[in-house]
Amino acid sequence: MRDGVVLGVERRRRWPDALKLEILGEVGVNGWTVSDVARRHDITRQHLYEWRRALKRKGLWPAKAPARFVEVPTTEALPATTAPPEAVISEVRIVLRSGRELHCSADLDDASLRRLLHVLETA
Question: Is the pTM of this model over 0.90?
Fold first, then answer.
């Protein structure tokens, strides 16, 4: 393209639905963002968003992704505590930008919470 004039044959690619699903499945894997996946496949982020909308309309993309559980390795044994039956244990639900959720006790220490968040963000 020179001075607003397209020279030669314009490049237009066709993407089968199976390939779109495969590419969309890469988002969130190993911490990849929509931008990372788009750059990797030489497309725009908007392509990915539009593909997802179109695949939802066709019924090929799940309305809500199924929950995935990540094993968290522990380095030290956690002390066993027993709460009295009348004690109320509050739970915290943290939703990350990737859509992943963390449900944990409200009295979880900062170091453990940071470790869990890091595992979820990099899984």
Answer: no
